[in-house]
Write a structure and sequence with these properties.
The chain folds into 2 domains: 36 residues; 132 residues, Rieske Iron-sulfur Protein (3-layer Sandwich), CATH 2.102.10. Helices cover 26% and strands 25% of the residues. It has 3 helices and 9 strands. A hairpin with a 2-residue loop joins β2 and β3.
């Protein structure tokens, strides 16, 4: 076989491999792009909430990333009770100060850590459990005024979502 045919064959092989690689990449890009979160999901990545309409002792439920978030404007008695709780009395020991950025505002995900139910306690007429926080009627988990599990099958405290204060009465979740 001549050297010219060998070079031609090498060129054809290289050109077809390059064309095949470009074709595979052009087919893969739409599939990879479809795995990215949609614009609607990215819009829900963070939300801003004005806290000024929430009177002391009342709660607000907002939806963030498809989950309820409980925001409670805590009374002084609730803050004091949460701070005075002994860590050895808790199933998932966590100081109240590590769960809040400002004492009067508690922000937690409203999803029971046992099986994902939504606990009662946001409305003034709801059962708040034995510790004045939230009560999950499905399996009997009781949470205190800091969202910490006190009694029942839930293994951990209500989760605290990432949030920051933008001003005295405005927070950004996410």
């Amino acid at each position: 076989m001549s050297e010219q045919n060998t070079q031609r064959r090498d060129f054809i092989k290289l050109a077809s491999m390059t064309l095949g690689g470009v074709g595979a990449a052009s087919l893969a890009i739409p599939f990879i792009s479809s795995m990215q979160p949609g614009k609607d999901a990215l819009a829900l990545a963070s939300t801003e909430i004005d806290l000024s309409p929430i009177p002391e002792g009342q709660s607000l439920t907002v939806i963030w990333r498809g989950k309820p978030v409980f925001i409670r404007h805590r009374l002084n008695e609730e803050i004091q009770s949460a701070k005075e709780t002994k860590l050895e009395d808790l199933k998932d020991a966590q100081e109240d100060s590590s769960r809040v950025l400002q004492d009067k505002w508690l922000v937690v995900l409203g999803v029971c850590t046992h099986l994902g139910c939504v606990p009662l306690g946001q409305k003034s007429t709801d059962a708040k459990g034995d510790y004045g926080g939230w009560f999950c009627p499905c399996h009997g988990s009781h949470y205190d005024t800091s969202g910490r599990i006190r009694k029942g099958p839930a293994p951990t405290n209500l989760d605290v979502p990432p949030y920051t204060f933008l001003s005295e009465n405005k927070i950004k979740i996410g």
